[in-house]
Structures are given as C-alpha cells and as structure tokens.
C-alpha cells in the first residue's frame, strides 16, 4: 500500500492548525503564556505548509523556498515556549536566527542545490529540537521518570528528520530525486505523530505543574508564606527519618506570640496580620536554612532543627531576643513584642506529634512563668500519652533574670 505524501502533509497541516487553536484557547483560559507560544508556533507551522503547497507552483523557486522561513520561526517559537514555561525570557535572536539562515541560503544557493538546502533545513530544525529537549529537561525539581517524555519527543523529531537527509546519498538511486525517497514519506508520517506527541508532552507538563501548585498551596500558609500545619508535618516527618538514619538528633520549638489578642483588639486585625508576617520573616531569617519552620495555629509557630537541644536553645533565645527588640510602632504608638518558646528533643525516630506535645508542655510552663522566655523539656524518650506530663527545665533568659531559672535552682 502506498501513501500519498500530499495527503499526509495536508493531514499534518490541518492537525497542527487544530492543535494550535486548542493550545491558544487553553492558554487564555489558564493564563499560561507558554501555551500561547506553543499555539502560535503550531499555527505558524500550518501556515507555512499551506502557503508552500498553494503558492509555490506560481512562484520562482527562490521565493517558494523562502516561504519555509515561517516554519523555522515556528521551530524557534517552540523552543522559546519551553523557555517561557520554565520562567526564562524569550530568546528573540535565537528565535529568528534559523529563519535568517534559511533565507540567506535560499538566496545564495543555486536553484538545483536541492539536497544541500534540505540538509541545511533539517539541520536547523534538529538544532531547535535539541534546544527544546534540553530546555524541557532542565528543570531539576522533576524526577527523571517524569522528564523523559519531554526530552524524548523533540529528540526523536530531530533524529527522524536528520537521518534520511544525511543518508539520502546512500539510499537514493542514481537519477532519482531525493523527494521521492521513502524517507520523505516516513517524515510526513512523523510530522503527524510529532504534532500529537508534542501536545501530549505539553499537557503532561502543564498538568504536573498544576498538581504541584495545588500541593504547594495546600501545604503553605497564605498569610506568612511558611508551611501550614499540614506542610510542616509532612516536611518534618521526612527530616526526622533522614536524621535518624544518619544518627543525628532533632529538636522542636513552639513559639507563641505573647498577648496577641490584645494587639488585635488595640490596633485591629490588619495590624495583627502584619505582626504575624513580621514574626514569620524574623524566624525564617534567624534560623538556619536547613531548619524547617511553619505556622501551626493562629499566633503559634513551630520549628524543627536538626541539632542537639543545647544548640536549639541558643537559637530559640536568639529568636526571642530579636523579636523583643524589633521595635514595632503602630499609629505612633510602640508595640511590645515578646514571644514565649517551648523546646523539646527526643531520641531518634521520635514522632513529630510526641515532640510537639513535649514542646507544648514547655511552652505552657513559659507562659505560666511570666512569658517572654524559653523553656526546655527534659531530653528523654517520650511517649505520646505522657508527652504533656514530662517535667520541664527552665532556661535562663537574660531579659527576665528573676523570672527564669534552672530547675531546682529557682
């Protein structure tokens, strides 16, 4: 059975136009600029093939070949769509370079240099395909298993395009035009498959990004930008397991802003929200980049530190002191900002909820002891139902020397 090449190219043209319109529609609906780029690229490619098929018989060979510059611009747009999708700026010189090289070649080469022009055109498309594959595979946050279709589809396109051109001299009988070779038929079929495969990859990437965005939104507190309780629990559970495998201790802190309700009552909820954001920023900037922190309640925050209790107590005191001296003024009135902190540690693989319960007991002791202080739970194996009954050891705070003392020494 023989396949008509003209029919195959017509199918590829109509399919590209349909997919291009679909991509642009979803780009507008979802406000994703990369989909617009991909959509315009498909429409431009379809326009190239349509103009070449309809107008080339009535034009001189040089002008007919120059029409394909639109197709090379479309290839550049596909590459730039991948750049935009990953947050990079469009590369305008790179977008036009292939088309300019093609136009220069069609003007300078003799009309009978068909094989050379085809080799040049295939090389330009293959380069753009390689750039697209590299860009789609460059986002390191994705697992390799999720990235391979995005890399493979454009690479196959470039390979299928280049192989018949480079082997044409070996596979084409003498005196037979290159355009009649079976490889041209294979390429026409590949165009249809590439158009469909690329759209599949595009929607796979968009779907994966959407799912990741929803997961992130479900784990992040919208006011402070920190982990919410769910996100904090998931992240810290992984850290606890990782640190336990390495034989390293972890310590949990719970922060509670003192007299937060009175600040809301005096200055209003907007001022309270600003105070929460300020404290979140202060915690993030004061703790190490390896420490995890989140907002687990109204004015209650927590942190997990991969370190010993002694190191965590120093870090907690640093946060307490920084918040006390941050100097907030609302409506020309200074606002007293203090925080009470409970700290707890445990043996490897102690569950997060157990550590939080012990830290919460220490926090309660800090509140009862006069606030604006750091209290530490005794570092020993904890049991969930007994977590709140553990004794606590007060850690001396330089801000309130008469209110804070070591257990047994007060």
Automatic annotation (TrEMBL):
GO molecular function: diguanylate cyclase activity
Cleavable signal peptide: none
Entry EC no(s): 2.7.7.65
Ranges where the GGDEF domain occurs: 248-379
Catalytic activity: 2 GTP = 3',3'-c-di-GMP + 2 diphosphate
Gene Ontology CC entries for this record: plasma membrane
Entry keyword annotation includes Transmembrane helix: yes
SUPFAM superfamilies documented for this protein: Nucleotide cyclase (SSF55073)
SMART domains found in the cross-reference section: GGDEF
Keywords recorded for this protein, A-Z: Membrane, Transmembrane, Transmembrane helix
Spans traversing the lipid bilayer: 6-25, 37-55, 67-85, 92-109, 115-136, 148-171, 183-206
Family annotation (PANTHER family): DIGUANYLATE CYCLASE DGCM-RELATED, REGULATORY COMPONENTS OF SENSORY TRANSDUCTION SYSTEM
Protein name as annotated: diguanylate cyclase
Naturally occurring in which organism (per UniProt): Rhodopseudomonas palustris (strain BisB18)
């Amino acid at each position: 059975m023989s396949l008509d090449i003209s029919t195959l190219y017509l199918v590829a043209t109509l399919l590209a136009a349909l997919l291009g319109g679909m991509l642009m529609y979803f780009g507008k609906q979802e406000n994703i600029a990369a989909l617009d780029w991909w959509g315009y690229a498909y429409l431009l490619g379809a326009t190239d093939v349509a103009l070449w098929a309809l107008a080339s018989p009535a034009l001189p060979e040089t002008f007919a070949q120059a029409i394909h510059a639109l197709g090379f611009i479309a290839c550049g747009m596909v590459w730039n769509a991948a750049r935009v999708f990953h947050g990079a700026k469009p590369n305008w010189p790179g977008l036009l370079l292939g088309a300019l090289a093609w136009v220069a070649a069609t003007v300078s080469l003799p009309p009978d240099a068909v094989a050379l022009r085809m080799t040049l055109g295939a090389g330009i498309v293959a380069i753009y395909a390689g750039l697209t594959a590299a860009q789609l595979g460059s986002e390191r946050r994705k697992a390799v298993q999720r990235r391979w279709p995005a890399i493979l589809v454009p690479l196959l396109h470039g390979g299928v395009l280049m192989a018949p051109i480079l082997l044409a001299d070996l596979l084409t009988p003498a005196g037979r035009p290159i355009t009649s070779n079976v490889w041209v038929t294979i390429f026409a079929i590949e165009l249809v498959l590439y158009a469909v495969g690329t759209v599949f990859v595009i929607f796979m990437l968009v779907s994966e990004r959407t799912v990741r965005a929803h997961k992130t939104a479900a784990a992040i507190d919208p006011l402070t930008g920190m982990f919410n309780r769910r996100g904090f629990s998931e992240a810290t559970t992984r850290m606890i397991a990782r640190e336990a495998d390495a034989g390293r201790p972890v310590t949990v802190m719970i922060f509670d802003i003192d007299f937060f309700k009175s600040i809301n009552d005096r200055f209003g909820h907007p001022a309270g929200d600003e105070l929460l954001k300020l404290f979140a920023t202060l915690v993030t900037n004061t703790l190490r980049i390896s420490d995890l922190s989140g907002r687990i309640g109204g004015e209650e925050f927590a942190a997990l530190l991969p370190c010993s209790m002694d190191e965590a107590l120093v870090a907690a005191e640093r946060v307490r002191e920084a918040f006390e001296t941050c100097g907030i003024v609302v409506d020309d009135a200074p606002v007293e900002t203090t925080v009470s902190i409970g700290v707890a540690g445990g043996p490897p693989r102690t569950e997060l909820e157990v550590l939080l319960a012990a830290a919460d007991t220490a926090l309660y002791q800090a509140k009862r002891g006069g606030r604006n202080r750091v209290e530490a739970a005794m570092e020993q194996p904890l049991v969930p139902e007994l977590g709140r009954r553990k004794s606590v050891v007060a850690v001396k705070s330089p801000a309130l020397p008469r209110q804070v003392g070591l257990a047994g020494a007060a």
